């Protein structure tokens, strides 16, 4: 699978179709597998089976489309530029470069450019999120222990 940087904002008709399709598929959201019948505008039809996690992904895509958002599907092994990685982490590019230079996130250089695997960016984000939750839990316990009332 290759990633394509094609941005397509859904039209009003596509947004409405996504909304209707999302409601229909949502009835099957808890299923392990879903059997679907497809019929194209050319008259061809096929039956297929979707695993539950694929249905969840499809529901997410439809929900975003119904709100007028563009969607990107990126393989976990995809390499990102430093700006793309910084955007995913919601940090500045210089801050991300500092993380790379400290070794917090693995990267490689292609010429003078740094490339970061999406999987490594997501792993870093997960580690930071876990640390944040642990710190908040500690602060909550400490404030309750001290009787701070919140």
Automatic annotation (TrEMBL):
It holds the Pfam family HTH_17. Residues 80-127 form the Helix-turn-helix domain. Transmembrane segments: none annotated. GO terms for molecular function: DNA binding. NCBIfam families: excise. This is Excisionase. It comes from Pseudohaliea rubra DSM 19751. The lineage of its organism: Bacteria, Pseudomonadati, Pseudomonadota, Gammaproteobacteria, Cellvibrionales.
């Amino acid at each position: 699978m290759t990633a394509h940087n094609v941005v397509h904002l859904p039209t009003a008709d596509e947004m409405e179709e996504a909304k209707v399709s999302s409601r229909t598929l949502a009835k099957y959201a808890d299923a392990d597998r879903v059997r679907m019948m497809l019929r194209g505008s050319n008259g061809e039809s096929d039956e297929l089976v979707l695993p539950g996690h694929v249905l969840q992904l499809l529901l997410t895509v439809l929900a975003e489309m119904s709100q007028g958002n563009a969607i990107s599907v990126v393989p976990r092994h995809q390499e990102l530029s430093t700006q793309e990685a910084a955007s995913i982490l919601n940090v500045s590019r210089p801050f991300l470069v500092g993380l790379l230079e400290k070794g917090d996130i693995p990267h490689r250089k292609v010429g003078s450019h740094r490339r970061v695997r999406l999987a490594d960016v997501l792993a870093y984000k997960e580690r930071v999120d876990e640390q944040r939750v642990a710190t908040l839990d500690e602060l909550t316990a400490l404030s309750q222990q001290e009787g701070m009332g919140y």
